[in-house]
Specification:
single chain; about 425 residues; mainly alpha; three-stranded mixed sheet; 19 helices; globular
C-alpha cells in the first residue's frame, strides 16, 4: 500500500486500525473472549474452553506472522514496542506479568476486556480504564517540571540492572541460530509451535463443538495478524523512493514542505499490533493535548474501535446494560485492579494481548515469560481469594502456599489448608 503523500498514508494507517478494531471489539463481546475468564474457568471449574480459545488466537497470529515475515510482508523486528530488543528484561517481564495477572483478576478483566465491558455499559470498567491510563502515562512520561517517571522512581535502580544483554535480538530464532540463520530458524520454530498449539487446542471435543470459542480464537488471532500487516505495509513514495511512515517522520525536515500535520512522535508509527495498557496511557496524553491529531496513534484508534465495536454488538444483541459498583469494597477492588494493571502492563511490556498474543507472535523470549507471569498471577490471586473465602480465619500466607500446592508449584506436603 504505497501512497503519494504522507496525509493519505497516515489516514489509511489510522482508519484501517479503527476498522480492524471494530471487528475485534464486536467479536470479543459476542464470543465472550476473555483471558481473565479463561484462567478463572480453568482454575475454578476445570473448564479449558476459553483458555483454548486464547491458545488458538496465539497459534493463528504466530503462524501468520512467521509466514508473512519469511516472505518480507511484515516487520516485527522493527516493532513498537520493541519485543525483540537485545536487552532481555526478564525480571520486568516476570514481575510485570505477575502484577498484571493480579490486577486483571481484581479489575474483572484484562485491558481488552475492560474496553469491551465499557462498550457494553459497564461503568466499573471505566474507572479501571482511567486508572490504568494515568499510571501507564506516568510510567513512561515525566511528572510535570521534572525528568522523573514512575518507572525511574519506583523500579529502574533495582530492576533494570537485572537485564541481560543478548546481543542483536532476543527472539528464539536468533538465540538458536544467530543473526544469519534467524529468519529460517524463526520460521521453523514458529510453525512447529503453532501446529502444536493447534493440536492442543482442537484436541478437545468440547472445544471443537463450541462455535463461540472457535470463532473468538480464529478472529482474535486474525485481527492481530491483520494489524501487523497493515502497519508494516503503509508506505509513501517520494520521487521514486519508498519510505515507511516512521522513516518519513524521522526525515520530516527534508521531505515535508512544512511542519503542518507532523505527528508528535515517530515511534507509534512503527510496525505493531494489539496491546492495550500503553494505548490507555496514550489516551491520557491525547486528552491533555486537547485531542490534537498529531497525538493520534495506532493504540488510540484501537481503543476507540474496540469500545465502539463492543457497543454496537451490545446494541444489536440487546445485551447493553449499565452496571455500577455493588459496594465500596467493589470500588476499591477495581481501583487496585487498575493500579496493578497499569504498573504491570508497562513493566511487562504488554498485557494478555500485547505480550500474550502479539508478543508471542514475534517469538520474543520475554513474551513467554510475561505470559507465564500473567497466568500465574491471575491463578494465584483466584486461589488465595477462594481459600480465604472458604476458610475465613486463614492467613494470606496459608492461602498462598496452598494455592501454589494446588497449581503443582510446591509439593503436597507443604499444603496448609485442606483442598476444597
Amino acid at each position: 500500500m504505497t501512497f503519494q503523500d504522507f496525509y493519505s498514508a497516515y489516514s489509511v494507517f489510522l482508519w484501517a486500525t479503527f476498522g480492524i478494531s471494530l471487528v475485534l471489539g464486536a467479536v470479543a463481546n459476542k464470543t465472550n473472549f476473555c483471558t481473565m475468564g479463561a484462567v478463572s474457568d480453568w482454575v475454578n471449574m476445570g473448564d479449558t474452553g476459553r483458555f483454548r480459545a486464547w491458545l488458538l488466537a496465539i497459534a493463528v497470529a504466530l503462524l501468520g506472522v512467521v509466514a508473512l515475515e519469511y516472505f518480507g510482508l511484515v516487520r516485527p523486528g522493527d516493532a513498537f514496542p520493541p519485543y525483540r530488543a537485545g536487552q532481555f528484561i526478564w525480571a520486568e517481564n516476570l514481575l510485570g506479568g505477575l502484577m498484571f495477572g493480579i490486577g486483571m483478576t481484581l479489575g474483572s478483566g484484562c485491558g481488552n476486556k475492560t474496553l469491551v465491558r465499557i462498550g457494553g455499559g459497564n461503568i466499573k470498567s471505566l474507572l479501571v480504564f482511567l486508572v490504568i491510563g494515568v499510571v501507564a502515562y506516568f510510567m513512561v512520561n515525566p511528572f510535570p517540571g521534572t525528568d522523573q517517571t514512575l518507572f525511574t522512581v519506583l523500579f529502574y535502580d533495582w530492576i533494570r540492572p537485572l537485564a541481560v544483554d543478548l546481543g542483536s535480538s532476543q527472539d528464539l530464532g536468533t538465540l538458536v541460530a544467530g543473526s544469519e540463520g534467524a529468519l529460517v530458524a524463526r520460521t521453523g520454530i514458529g510453525i512447529v509451535l503453532g501446529l502444536l498449539l493447534l493440536v492442543v487446542t482442537f484436541g478437545s471435543r468440547d472445544f471443537r463443538s463450541s462455535f463461540d470459542n472457535v470463532l473468538g480464537g480464529l478472529v482474535i488471532g486474525g485481527v492481530v495478524l491483520a494489524a501487523w500487516y497493515v502497519t508494516s505495509n503503509v508506505m509513501i513514495d517520494v520521487d521514486g523512493e519508498t519510505y515507511s511512515l516512521q522513516s518519513y517522520v524521522q526525515e520530516w525536515d527534508f521531505l515535508a514542505e512544512s511542519e503542518a500535520g507532523k505527528p508528535a512522535d515517530s515511534r507509534p508509527l512503527a510496525p505493531q499490533s494489539y496491546t492495550f495498557v500503553n494505548p490507555m496511557g496514550q489516551m491520557v496524553g491525547f486528552t491533555a493535548a486537547g485531542f490534537d491529531r498529531a497525538y493520534l496513534t495506532f493504540g488510540i484508534m484501537a481503543v476507540f474501535g474496540v469500545i465502539l465495536g463492543s457497543f454496537l454488538w451490545a446494541l444489536v444483541s440487546g445485551s447493553f446494560r449499565i452496571e455500577w459498583f455493588a459496594s465500596a469494597g467493589d470500588f476499591v477492588r477495581h481501583l487496585f485492579g487498575g493500579l496493578f494493571m497499569g504498573f504491570g502492563g508497562v513493566l511487562a511490556l504488554g498485557c494478555t494481548f500485547g505480550q500474550g498474543i502479539t508478543g508471542i507472535s514475534t517469538l520474543a523470549a520475554g513474551s513467554f515469560i510475561a505470559f507465564f507471569g500473567i497466568v500465574l498471577g491471575a491463578a494465584l490471586t483466584m486461589k488465595v481469594e477462594y481459600y480465604r473465602m472458604v476458610y475465613e480465619e486463614a492467613s494470606f500466607a496459608a492461602a498462598l502456599v496452598t494455592g501454589l500446592v494446588d497449581l503443582h508449584l510446591l509439593p503436597e506436603r507443604l499444603r496448609r489448608l485442606e483442598a476444597v
